[in-house]
Design brief:
The chain is an all-alpha fold. The chain has 21 helices and two strands. It folds into two domains: about 220 residues, no CATH class; about 240 residues, no CATH class. Helix content is about 70%, strand content about 0%. A two-stranded antiparallel ribbon has the order 1-2. β1 and β2 form a beta hairpin.
Length: about 550
């Protein structure tokens, strides 16, 4: 069996696992199998020759993380203090890596399949969970270093090897800290909840964590104040609560020779904090984490009646909207699948939460610069075209339906070909319409209401135009994307990262913002624009169901 280079590196730190009471040799064998499984292609339930040459989706998703990391490179060049630059970089890194942990690896962390196989053997809980945690940590480190790679190289060229060494070591500590904090939060939930209640709490936790991170990393850029043309640092007590400040402090302390108590204390916290919490985790928490995972398997039927009532209400709502019999069926089918599968919700809900609140947060962050009161900000907002930030929601919402190709019950996808359906387009369009009606419209209405506060009724034409552009973008992305049957693939890390769809959505939203801004004060122009977009959208939606089985 192939031996991985990362395992040889891990052998150097085997003493750490042994000191924690973990059977390292057994853990290494389990980890080797997990890494081998990661290299397998995504299995296709319905045989499709077009997908046989597809490379590992995790490796292809690293391209996106590397491109995201290019943003950090531009922060290296302005003549700002290193503490400011690295605060921003680490703030964004913590945000992005934690969101990846929550959206991509929660299913691995909370996976209970290993228990039935491994725990029936003479293997203890600590060893099984250590293999799981190390497996996730390896993937997180890969993503972190790929994302930070461009800035790591540029920093080496500009500041030298000392900068490279500090940055490299900080990235190791950062990944461990993120993994620890996420694991502990899940562990606390496992202690107090079980069954369906626990699954719901996990979904709510991910949404709340998304919002907290989005708001929290804004503080990284507010450590400094612009006074004249100089960046002035004003230490506050809350800086000691920011991990980005912990990891940024050594750069000023060592490279800029700012030997001050605040930099020293922050550096010590950044060094000892992650190490100590990992020791506590492996020594104490890991003993009970796996034992409490059984609660995820305690499924109850308390919510069944509530779910059935919701399904009846949803059926009454969509019946006059979706007239086609087959589309109507799969419209309700998509709602039932999302409601019943925790893995789908684990990936979907945080994205919907981000699409709801990110425009508000970004606009507020931009609007409050130089403004001292909320009333002044609202007045300034009502006089401008800040509603165009809604296109950020459009950009994020438009790509979410295309994550619905995976399911825990992917093996049941054979049923599609057993049904008396000549054109599978009705399946794809039905699921897409169901997702729009059940999830996208409520999210868009919520964020629209939040934006409508300072504008009032005069915002309605603009909201209609923005929503029309959302529908047009979704159907255009549907045309561009590979035609895959819904819920027909097994979940695999990185599979929901489709670079072409992201770039297409970004380009469409950018052009829409330009045209919308040009016509913002021209009422007739807005009306004509809406008519054109709705007409084009209607034509595309009517013709998009004409897909044959050979195209899927």
């Amino acid at each position: 069996m192939k031996d991985f280079w990362i395992l040889k590196v891990l052998d150097v730190f085997s003493f750490f696992y042994k000191a924690m009471g973990i059977d390292y040799e057994v853990m290494r064998k389990i980890l080797k199998l997990k890494l081998l499984m990661d290299q397998r292609r995504v299995p296709s339930v319905l045989v499709n020759s077009k997908r046989k040459d597809q490379e590992n989706t995790f490796n292809s998703s690293l391209i996106i993380y590397a491109l995201m990391g290019l943003v950090f490179v531009f922060l290296m060049f302005p003549p700002f203090p290193l503490f400011f630059k690295m605060n921003l970089i680490f703030g964004m890194l913590i945000f992005m890596v934690t969101m990846t942990m929550v959206s991509e690896y929660s299913s691995l962390l909370l996976d209970t399949k290993d228990r039935g196989i491994l725990l029936s053997k003479p293997i203890d809980f600590q060893t099984v969970n250590a293999a799981k945690i190390t497996h996730i940590l390896i993937n997180l480190l890969t993503i972190t270093f790929v994302m930070a790679g461009p800035s790591l190289i540029v920093g080496l060229l500009k500041y030298g090897w000392v900068f490279f060494g500090i940055y490299f070591f900080d990235l190791l500590l950062l990944s461990g800290l993120i993994l620890f904090l996420t694991s502990v939060l899940y562990f606390i939930m496992l202690l107090f909840f079980d069954g369906d209640k626990l699954k719901d709490i996990i979904n709510y936790f991910q949404i709340i964590l998304s919002l907290v991170l989005t708001v929290g990393y804004q503080f990284a850029g507010r450590i400094f104040q612009l006074v004249g043309h100089n960046m002035v640092l004003s230490f506050k007590w809350w800086m000691y609560l920011l991990p980005s400040a912990w990891f940024a402090a050594p750069f000023s302390l060592i490279l800029e020779n700012r030997v001050e108590n605040n930099y020293l204390y922050l550096s010590v916290i950044g060094l000892l904090g992650p190490i100590l919490v990992l020791i506590i985790y492996f020594r104490v928490i890991i003993k009970y984490f796996e034992k409490n995972l059984y609660k995820l398997d305690n499924v109850t039927s308390k919510k069944r009646k509530t779910t059935e009532k919701r399904a009846i209400i949803f059926k009454k709502i969509i019946s006059p909207i979706v007239r086609n019999k087959y589309e109507n069926i799969f419209c309700r089918f998509s709602q039932n699948m999302i409601s019943s599968e925790r893995s789908i919700r684990l990936r979907l809900y945080p994205s919907l939460a981000m699409a709801t609140f990110m425009p508000i947060i970004m606009m507020a962050n931009f609007l409050l610069i130089g403004i001292n009161s909320v009333n002044s900000a609202l007045t300034d907002m009502s006089q401008g075209a800040y509603y165009l930030w809604l296109y950020l929601s459009v950009f994020m919402l438009a790509v979410t339906p295309f994550t619905l190709t995976s399911s825990e019950n992917y093996k049941g996808a054979w049923i599609y070909k057993a049904l008396p359906i000549e054109l599978p387009g009705v399946i794809l369009i039905g699921v897409l319409k169901g997702f729009i009606l059940r999830y996208l419209i409520p999210v868009f209405l919520l964020v629209s209401i939040l934006f409508a506060v300072p504008y009032g009724a005069r915002l309605i034409p603009h909201l209609i135009l923005i929503f029309s552009n959302l529908l047009l973008l979704i159907i255009l992305l549907f045309k561009l994307s590979p035609k895959e049957l819904p819920f027909s693939k097994r979940f695999q890390t990185g599979e929901n990262n489709r670079l072409e769809l992201v770039f297409a959505s970004l380009a469409f939203c950018g052009m829409s913002v330009v045209v919308h801004y040009a016509l913002r004060d021209f009422g007739v122009g807005i009306l004509i624009y809406v008519i054109v977009v709705l007409s084009l959208t209607t034509v595309l939606w009517k013709t998009s169901a004409r897909i044959s089985w050979k195209d899927v």
